[in-house]
Amino acid sequence: MLATARGRPCPARTLGTMQRSLTIEYGDEILLAVGLSPEQFHDQAKLLLAAKLYELGKVTSGQAARLCGRGRVEFLMALSGLGVPACNLRPEDAEGELEFGRHG
Description:
Elements: H1 11-14, H2 28-34, H3 38-55, H4 61-67, H5 72-79, H6 91-103
């Protein structure tokens, strides 16, 4: 398994590219409540799922961006509007990142 600079495994690079889909049933009352078209709601739902997975540290920003069909920078920029910090480093990871930066 490949590893990132932080030493974490990169499962996306070692697993196959099997695509899966998720179906969520909702009625028109949801669209009316949120004031979105079905297409806008679909895009927003994908962004929210990707943002939450990123916030929880379950996926990288690149994985989250691909999940919601956006570029990585575009995804990271959208996070502030959702109240999600763009940096999800845990305190224990921060020291490792600083050490890596100092010594390579």
